[in-house]
Amino acid sequence: MTDEAPRLSVVVPVFNEEAVLPLFAGRMRPVLDGLRVPYEVLTVDDGSRDTTPAVLELLRRQWPELRVIRLRRNSGHQNALTAGLRRARGQYVVSIDVDLQDPPETIGEMLRLAESRGLDVVHGVRADRSTDSAFKRGTASLYYRLIRRVAGTAVPRHAGDFRLLSRTAVDALTELPEHLPVYRLLVPWLGLPSGQVTYTREQRAAGRSKYPIAKMVRLALDSIVGFSAAPLRVATWLGLLGIAVCGVLAVAGGAAYLSGNVVPGWTSLIVAVLFLGALQLLCLGLLGEYVARVFTTLQGRPAYVVTFDSDLEDVQEDALCRL
Q: How far apart are CA 107 and CA 149, in angstroms?
């Protein structure tokens, strides 16, 4: 590791990507070499269980600028990204996925835009999602509409985790006490000078997606619950709605009793009980999401543990990852 900080750091979370890593290195290295600036590439191995560590070690021997960080266990994409941001030394830091759906060639355009306009953030915005399935396009559109309503219009549409950050932005992000960070919301929240670069999203170069439906749902839930108290207010409104519905049922039941037009059975009672029970369970579930986050924070366990950094001889657990 040299004492002089590089101009550019590229942070790449990696999990079970043995098939795509050689393709990624073969495409990324010429792009970064062509920028003619000192750089480093931080691959954060998020507890891979295939031959990813061996592939990274082989690539590191061939590519001096490649730096390998290894986490003790799988901690999730956002936490792996956090580990990379905290250890990146560049004046500008780009985060990109390894699957090559976000083109590395766009990094040069991001860097030039940030330097020419003095920007702290440059978002990579997808101009075309034709490579995604109809289901993925629909759910993505719903997700961005939802988070823009929750977090405000400062969140760019169709902007994922492909972005460039200045050292100012990186330092501000790593100082935030977020245990479950969602950077596509946190970065716009900083309110720093920002710009956008559009690109066409490509097909995954190799391997399979590491973001199935369950993880997408989890990301949406973390985005909403971790950034807004709106679900708690929804629970309140649902409670008021339940009271109103029960009031209408009570009036209807009283009118039926007085008119003698009482239908034998307990259907209306069962419907009312089920309706109220569903509302209560929903409200308890929403409240539980917030309580669980408070409990996790109070435990003080690290969000991730770094066990290896190819630039350091003695790697210890990050002090800042205890939130």
A: 29
Average pLDDT of the residues of the chain? 80
Of residues 93, 70, 87, the one with CA closest to residue 14: 70
Phi, psi torsion values for 318, nearest 5 degrees: -60, 130
Is the model more confident about 279 or about 116?
Answer: 116
Count Cβ atoms below 10 Å from residue 163 Cβ, excluding itself: 25
What pLDDT is recorded for position 314? 44
Instruction: Give the chain's largest Cα–Cα span.
Output: 90
**pTM of the model as a whole:** 0.73
Environment class of 292 (CB within 10 Å of its CB; exposed 0-12, middle 13-18, buried 19+): exposed
* Torsion angles phi and psi, residue 153, rounded to 5: -75, -5
**Residue 145 one-letter amino acid:** R
Domain boundary assignment for the chain: 8-227+302-321, 230-299
Q: Transcribe 167-228 into DSSP letters.
A: HHHHHHHHTS--SS--HHHHHHHT---EEEEEEEPPPPSSS--S--HHHHHHHHHHHHHTT-
Percent of the chain scoring above 70 in pLDDT:
64
pLDDT in tens, 128-167: 766 666 666 666 667 667 666 766 656 777 778 899 999 9
Domain spanning 8-227+302-321, CATH architecture = Alpha-Beta Complex (3.90)
Q: Say how far apart CA 64 and CA 285 lie, in whole Å.
A: 50
